[in-house]
Design brief:
- This protein is mostly helical and 70 residues long.
- The chain is built from two helices and no strands.
- 13% of the residues are buried.
């Protein structure tokens, strides 16, 4: 699904993943655990949400790496 860019049927909305990763990042900060990949994923997801993709399936992340614009 991810590689083919198939967004239907939805597995989960991007804004929900941002909420969940925000919670995980908060825990990592509280216990002073570095989480560079978590922070990178969260940054990419926030960027897509800001571009209006918050209600899209999480597989929309794959479109960041296509040559055509979102």
């Amino acid at each position: 699904r991810f590689a083919k860019g198939r967004l239907e049927p939805k597995l989960g909305e991007l804004y929900t993943m941002v909420k969940d990763l925000d919670a995980a990042a908060d825990v990592a900060r509280q216990v002073k655990t570095p989480a560079p990949m978590l922070n990178q994923a969260l940054s990419l997801m926030r960027m897509l949400t800001a571009r209006g993709h918050g209600l899209d399936d999480i597989c929309v992340l794959g479109r960041l790496y296509e040559s055509k614009p979102l």
